[in-house]
């Protein structure tokens, strides 16, 4: 049975919706390398205000603004120094009529209400400084101008108050938001649990080691694993046996460990199509979609096991994943819909009338060149800059016409 690209897309979207809906929450440390680009599953609220405490914006002197009201270039005011506050030190107390050297990020001493940058002091540099517990300060600093209250002081909570919403549920965690979560004192972040996929290749011709005559390296495994990982999927790759009974037993075992099983190969019209032969009697759906490459497609729901079956030719496998799975992963991960580019076609191209063709293309010198349609041309796939969709009903494209191009690498 042949179905359209849109129908198959819709069928897979409804097949996978309960899978995505069931994922729930996973708590990741804010330092986790897996956190970037994940989606928060709950509202997160600040434990600490940002900034966490009132601190200095400059390396300079914390003083009371009232002590410098008369300061002028011809009448500098000299203040004895108190202890020095470095970033990370506990809060000091400023005695009236003194100046406390403070470094950027240090707590503003209690009683101080303004900061004068060191370069604005009469000498422009710090004299010898003494931190609390390391002796008695003896120096002085002179100032030639008043400094208004609050100047160069960063108040606690000015950016975000304690208890305020840091990120609503559904936020995609970009690096800056990770900084906001960390700054607000959150150490464990609730994110939507990553989809766990078992990526199963099939075919006696595949080998990851020594190649016997007739064998080829397994390209689909590393290719699709890389694609899925790019979309935050936890992937486990496995080569399933080519006999239907062993295949079903393996699927049975895998279903307890993963959310989704993706098989590649073994679904077309051959005599040894293990995936189709194993899953058809169990209610699997195998049909031809009016697309090229990627015509043979399948899926099955076996109890709790959701199985997606892609064709084995590497180009067909990757484009099947790009067409049917990646858009759902992008939606789950809160990514915006990709946008096409537009370029004039360098040379004419043709396409079968009753198929939606997805062609690989090069973009050079502002023009797009469509490559050969063969679904075994994995190196052409690798060097392509973009995909070009030629819908059902369009048989001829002419040189110079404007073409939509879609990136595979977003
Ligand atoms: N009589 C027909 N033959 C075929 C049809 C058809 O409609 N009638 N469809 C063709 C199309 S279109 C495709 S696509 C393929 C899909 O076949 P399968 O999904 O059954 O895949 P296999 O037969 O297992 O493999 C196809 C091809 O890809 C190579 N392959 C498979 N797995 C890998 C891998 N992991 N790494 C690298 N290469 C792989 C395999 O060796 C075959 O060359 O069927 C057409 N035939
Ligand atoms: O659909 Mo197949 O993917 O044309 O080779």
UniProtKB/TrEMBL annotation:
Pathway involvement of the protein, from the record: Cofactor biosynthesis; molybdopterin biosynthesis
CDD domains documented for this protein: MoeA
SMART domains reported in the protein's UniProt record: MoCF_biosynth
InterPro entries for the chain: MoaB/Mog-like_dom_sf, MoaB/Mog_dom, MoeA-like, MoeA_C_domain_IV, MoeA_C_domain_IV_sf, MoeA_linker/N, MoeA_linker/N_sf
Keyword annotations of the record: Magnesium, Metal-binding, Molybdenum, Molybdenum cofactor biosynthesis, Transferase
Record has Protein biosynthesis as a keyword: no
UniProt catalytic activity: adenylyl-molybdopterin + molybdate = Mo-molybdopterin + AMP + H(+)
Signal peptide (from-to): none
Superkingdom of the organism of origin: Bacteria
Entry EC no(s): 2.10.1.1
SUPFAM superfamilies hit by this protein: MoeA C-terminal domain-like, MoeA N-terminal region -like, Molybdenum cofactor biosynthesis proteins
Residues of the MoaB/Mog domain: 198-331
Cofactor dependency: Mg(2+)
Gene3D superfamilies assigned to the protein according to its UniProt record, in alphabetical order: MoaB/Mog-like domain (3.40.980.10), MoeA, C-terminal, domain IV (2.40.340.10), Molybdopterin biosynthesis moea protein, domain 2 (3.90.105.10), Molybdopterin biosynthesis moea protein, domain 3 (2.170.190.11)
Family, per entry: Belongs to the MoeA family.
Function, as annotated: Catalyzes the insertion of molybdate into adenylated molybdopterin with the concomitant release of AMP.
PANTHER family xref list: GEPHYRIN, MOLYBDOPTERIN BIOSYNTHESIS PROTEIN
Protein name as catalogued: Molybdopterin molybdenumtransferase
Organism: Glutamicibacter mysorens
């Amino acid at each position: 049975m042949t179905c359209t690209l849109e129908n198959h897309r819709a069928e897979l979207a409804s097949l996978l919706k309960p899978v995505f809906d069931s994922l729930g929450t996973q708590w990741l440390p804010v330092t986790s390398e897996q956190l970037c680009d994940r989606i928060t599953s709950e509202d997160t609220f600040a434990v600490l205000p940002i900034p966490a405490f009132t601190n200095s914006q400059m390396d300079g002197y914390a003083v009371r603004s009232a002590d410098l009201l008369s300061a002028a270039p011809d009448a500098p005011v000299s203040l004895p120094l108190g202890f020095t506050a470095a970033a990370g030190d506990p809060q000091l107390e400023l005695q009236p009529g003194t100046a406390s050297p403070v470094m950027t990020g240090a707590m503003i001493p209690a009683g101080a209400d303004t900061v004068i940058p060191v370069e604005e002091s009469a000498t422009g540099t710090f004299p010898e400084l003494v931190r609390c517990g390391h002796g008695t300060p003896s120096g002085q600093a002179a100032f030639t101008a008043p400094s208004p209250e609050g100047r160069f002081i960063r108040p606690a909570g000015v950016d975000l108050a304690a208890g305020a919403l840091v990120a609503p549920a559904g936020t995609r965690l970009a690096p800056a938001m990770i900084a906001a979560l960390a700054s607000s004192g959150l150490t464990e972040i609730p994110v939507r649990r990553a989809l766990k996929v078992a990526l199963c290749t099939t075919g006696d011709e595949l080998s990851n080691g020594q190649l016997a005559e007739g064998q080829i390296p397994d390209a689909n495994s590393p290719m699709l694993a890389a694609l899925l990982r790019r979309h935050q999927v936890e992937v486990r790759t496995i080569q399933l046996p080519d006999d239907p009974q062993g295949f079903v037993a393996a699927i049975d075992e895998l279903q307890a460990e993963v959310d989704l099983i993706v098989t590649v190969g073994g679904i077309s019209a051959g005599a040894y199509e293990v995936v189709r032969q194993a899953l058809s009697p169990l209610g699997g759906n195998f049909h031809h979609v009016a697309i090229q490459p990627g015509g043979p497609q399948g899926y099955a729901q076996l109890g709790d096991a959701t199985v997606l079956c892609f064709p084995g030719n590497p180009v067909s496998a990757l484009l099947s994943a790009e067409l049917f799975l990646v858009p759902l992963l992008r939606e789950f991960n809160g990514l915006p819909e990709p946008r096409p580019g537009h370029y004039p076609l360098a040379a004419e191209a043709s396409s079968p009338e009753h198929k939606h063709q997805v062609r690989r293309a090069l973009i050079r010198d502002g023009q797009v060149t469509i490559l050969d349609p063969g679904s075994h041309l994995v190196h052409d796939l690798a060097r392509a800059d973009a995909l070009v969709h030629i819908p059902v009903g369009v048989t001829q494209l002419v040189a110079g016409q404007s073409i939509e191009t879609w990136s595979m690498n977003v």
